[in-house]
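Recap quiz, item 2
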Amino acid sequence: MKHHKYIIHSSRFRTIAGFLTVIILLLIASTGCKKLVEVPPPIDQVISSEVFSNDQTATSAVVGLYSQMLSQPFTFIDGGMTFYPGLSADEIVNNSPNADYDPFKNNAIPPSNYDIQYSLWGDAYKFIYQANDCIAGLNASTGVSAATKQQLTGEMEFSRALCYFYLVNLFGPVPLETTTNYTVNEVMPRTSTDLVYKQIIADLEDAESLLSTSYPASGPTRPNKWTAEALLARVYLYTKDWKDAEATASAIINSGNYSLVKDLNGVFLANSPEAIWQLVPTDPSSNTVEGEYFIPYDPTVIPSFQVTSYLLNAFESGDNRKTDWLASVTISGTTYTYPYKYKVQSGSTKTEYEMVFRLAEQYLIRAEAEAELNNIPAAVADINIIRERAGLPDLPTTLSQADCLKAIAQENRIEFFAEWGHRWFDLNRTGQADVVLGVEKPGWKPTDALYPISSYEIQINHNLTQNPGY
Amino acid sequence: MKKYVQENLLHTMVRCMKYSTLILIVICSTAMSVLALRANGQDVLKRKITVSFKDVSLNKALDVITKTSGVTFTYNASQIKNDLKLTGSFKNVELETVLNKLFSNLPYSFSVVADEIIIKYDPQKLRPDAEKKTENQQANPIRISGTVTDNMHNPLAGVTIHIAGRRTVITTDESGSFQITVPDKESVLIFSYIGYATKEVPVGNQLTMEIHLMPSNSDLDEVQVIAYGTTTQRLTTGAISKVSAADIESQPVSNPLAALEGRVPGLEITQSNGVPGSAFKVLLRGQNALSSDQTANSDPLFVIDGVPFAPNNTSINQIYSAVGGNGLSPFNSINPNDIENIEVLKDADATAIYGSRGAYGVILITTKKGKAGKTKVIANVTTGSSTVTRMPELLNTQQYVQLRKEAFKNDGVTPDSTNAPDLTVFNQNRYTNFAKEFIGNAAPTTDAEAGISGGNENTQFLINGDFHHESTVSPDAAGDNKASFHVNVNHTTPDKKFSVSFTASYTSDNNNIQVQDLTSSIFLPPNYPALFDSNGNPVWQYNGVSLQNPLSFLLDTYTVETENLLSNLVLSYKILPGLTVRTSMGYNFIQDNEVATFPSTSQDPQYNPEGYSQFGNNMFKSVIVEPQAEYTTNIKKGKLDILAGGSWQQTINSGSSIQAFNYSSDDLLKSLGAAGTLSATNNYDQYRYAAVFGRINYDWQDKYILDLTGRRDGSSRFGSGKQFGNFGAAGGAWLFSNENFIKNNLSFLSYGKLRSSYGITGSDNIGNYQYLDSWSSTSYPYQGTSGLTPARLANPDYSWEVNRKLEGAVDLGFFKDRILISVDYYRNESSNHLITYQLPEQTGFTSILENFPAVVRNTGWEFSLNTKNVITKNFTWNSSFNFTVPENKLVSFPGLATSSYSGTYVVGKSLSVYQGLQYLGVNPATGIFQFKDLNGDGTIDYNDVKVLGDLDPKFYGGLQNTLNYKNWSLQFFFEFRKQMGLNYLNSIYNPYGYIPGNMTNEPVSILERWQSPGQETSIEKLTASYGTDAYNAASLLGSYKNGAVFSDASFIRMKNLSISYNLPDSWLKHLHISSSRVFLEGQNLLTITKYKNGDPETQNLNELPPLKTIVVGLQLTL
């Protein structure tokens, strides 16, 4: 009897044992079955190691940055520099109350402002990340040809310098990041303006040596040597390095690659002879952000923005820029004048590109450098080149240095109104902001010259400090 | 790493053992104290008595004892055999000795309750005697054969049969037959089977038996679907709640998730808004995931008929529409009427077998299956309409104009055509009730369903078709049309060895919702000019003032077509008695096609006159193959069940999104070919998952049950070397009500179970490829060259999120299970969190995905009570109540203060902690909102925030009552939730939009605004101008979280009401209709809340609140 029981049990246990064997086998099998859980990479992505393996994808990575720059209206490069500093200075005002524009117009930006955090600061660092990633990737690459590597590295150094240039002028000291290492970058404190400029100059000098004088694609749509020099000349001017500013601007002017467009209505066209760098709008349905948002669609509606009376009154009589670069509509007896440098409101055929650097600026940079070096006749000659195109009479070469500088400031104001924040940055770098805006803008405080650091950013990175006055 | 995992597992097992020891101690001490309590009433047995009797029956003998001693006996007369001849004579002997003698050879035991002696029939008592008998006396073994069938005479295979008081246990074979040898005539056979009432049969003189088992009347014995199998509530070791078809069908909803709201303890479901197709947030036992977005990553795993639902609970749309930011719910493409039941698996024991996906719980949806019996045709038609539950009451023109003027007066500003066209240009007497116009309509809803089902012992089938239409409350809404088809076929070979089951459902949904929810536009000034001209064209300006025109959205179209195919095939073969191999194969295909058109006429001509369109396509395809083997045997007195299996799953998600511009005509907007310019993006994601799993379940006489589960699995969502993980759980249950000392002493306690479990589950609930360092293409090429941009900050080293779950519960049934109570305590601790760690923008990205050693603990008590209050022939009344008290706590977060989460989380508080400015009310002197300057630095900013509370419910639950009187049936269900939430001020003080006093209408509550010094009120003075003190205070209200917008959002909602009447059979006989029912059903009929303006569930004035639906219907069964 007992023996029989044992047999029953043993057969049962045999089954159980067999079962456990199956489980164990399956377990073993699964560890060997890594393939079962391996998936191919996604179709819309390229593995980083592949990006810099050949000229084509490396070029895509670089031009991808330009596409990103123009991907969202009213952000950093995509109109951000024209609209926000334009509102903060005395150039343009929005016509109806608008929660996005009012804080900038009123020089009362709360540190929690969305555009400060995302559209300006956030976008700039997004672009800097991509530039850093490209520079490192190109540097380590073995598959990209030497010529392409040189060109692309130069473009990305230039782009990084461009972003830092606007950051440092909008915010003052900013974290200076030259790698993509987020563990370092997430706690990076603000770096002094001097050091940021030092990096900008180093990048631009390197870019200038790497880039060729010809453009890598059709038209002045990707940076070349002269693009890097154009920003470099401006940086020298902003850092009061008059000699280098003069020399660099001269090099560009004398290169013979560019010429002023006689017809003011043609300055901002695609592939304008005056253009040192233009970005090609990417949105299939529109041209430039300035054209789209300055020009009202219908002459019967109030435009979103108009130029200020201060700007309007600053035009000398007979200035063709007043007639060619401004337009107006009259509604219910009120006339609204708006910037009209770009003529195309919208449309999928792209006849106008976003002008970033143009030759006229180099004349005025050189003029200012020469004036600061007390070479008045040369300075006046440069000013007059710009004035002549605008249909204005020449200034005499007998101007005092102070008057000459004043004339240059006036010329900058008119030539570059509603264009990349020139007025705002000029007022700030020349110490005129308090003098001018203190009178024109109610509630102006000297600390308004710098935008606040986003309070959310300070909350996340405790090493960041707020600008005074916020 | 592998070593680490093993050590981790070991560590866990040790912890696991610790816990089970602890639980055992608790259980034992409880049991002992119960016994001790009993002992107090034993004095009566010590009483000495003198008694004698001769050749009398048992009850006669007991009578004699009662007479001589005054002791009363209680017993069930039917159990007392009267054919006994008892003889005895005692002189001054303790009653206990007398009774022991009397019952020494009888199958009875006795116990004392108060001063009464309770006598119970106890066949097991004789076991030692019976064994003695076989040794000492002549044994008379009897061989018995028989069959076991159900009430429909279908044979039942696998019925457990054991001889009372003996170790022998057998099971019936495929044809329901059994053969067993019993020791003697006195033996009793006990038949038990899942879902059926246990039956005890005395052998007597029978040699063959025909046993019919009746389906159990107790809710405890209803079949409960668990991972890879079934059990009953009586025998389960895990925490499982069930919602059955009866509760789902009575709700006129189109999304099954809506039908679950408030019904399951521990399950918190929140509707995003009332637009048809909108998403539901599902949280099972609280938020575990740390995330910058509170809604992300905590969805339970949804499994439909064994197949993981490919999109789970993520939104499936590509194009933004009126359904809002949380998107389109994939569950909208499942017909709630096809669902047989929904099981919610909560603890480790129930979920660990899902391994790396069970961390946030598992919800199993089982669709309807064919049943053997006469062929039945059922047709069901309902029709009704929906309206907004709680419509905010807004200012009329007179009030509005007065308030606007007051705002300008407060500011000292003169209204002019620029700052106040509403006061200077618009007609001052025009009035439009925009709330009524935009969301005030009644939305018709219709549902028609027909099905046929039937079959025989071997083959059963079910075919069901359903059409559902519902509209929305906005004008010109075409609405949502859904057609679905469900089929199930089961076949078993006559020898019962091989069986096949196939289920498929197909749903095609065509949802024409608007591009924008018009709710956000009801705040237009009430004197706003007409939005359409006499020709039906939208108006964009009025006397030189440009207008917003929300009704222009009606010219835009948005259509989403969703197709959903769910199919499942199960093949099963019984190789040996007790050993079954099974393979389950599933396929789920869900695809949506979206088209949105924006004709030029619908756009403000000021900006862009060109018509354009958007096309979206999103497809999820999931295949799963799960081979399994199950072995059932009896060891000693217990039943052992071993399951082993493997699982391989692949899910593909691919989609595209196309923007089309440059059309020559608005009429061509739905054509891709007619577009002059196209810009497209597409995506393709693949997810693979492989696992082996096992379960060992040992059930010792339905008293002690042990359940061990384990799984090793791998997921493609992790980088190389991090793909595999081990998960497991142990669960145990003690059905103490099956112990004799309970049976004998606490007869009112019909059911009692203590259960506990501990285990580890994981979560891979993150997107695919997140570990991959890659570049994605830019939205647009640059000058014809395609662009790339870094896709993310990549981290190849992250791994599973780990969730440790502990559960302890007691389930009790009283008075033959008429009262069932269940109390659960759970503690889930998640660690190694996979979080999108927020980074400052200066890193170039806003976050990175990484494991983070924070610990989040969810604890809670779940309570459920089911009662059958009245059971009479004509009237029955059942109630069901559930109640959950959850607690969520961030236990630790290393380096929180310096992390990007410092403003979001607080250690020791809930993840939904609400930190904000301390609100001091409106200053009666100045009429300005005031906040406390906590740090005293003179400015109010985020440095002044403090913990104000959290957004978790304090408790929630539901109460269901079902009353049946003759042919009438009434069912009503209340959901309740106690919580704090964001009030209407949060919606009207918008930092990026308007504030009261600006050109926007407001709820009438704004009339309480501050007007003159000294006035005590809750709303500050109105302002229309930028930069005033009132404006600045209002923007503080809008920009920072604060106490002013945080208030009680508790509610009690009559979620469902259903009244039905079964037409008398006598009426139907002539029409050859076997039954017919007319009914009225309502959803969200009544909301009781202190919450002002808007709905306490959605808490957003800019989104459509949940809808109230009333339908009437007719059901016919042929």
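The longest strand of chain A covers residues 326-331.
Chain A has a mean pLDDT of 91.
End of item.
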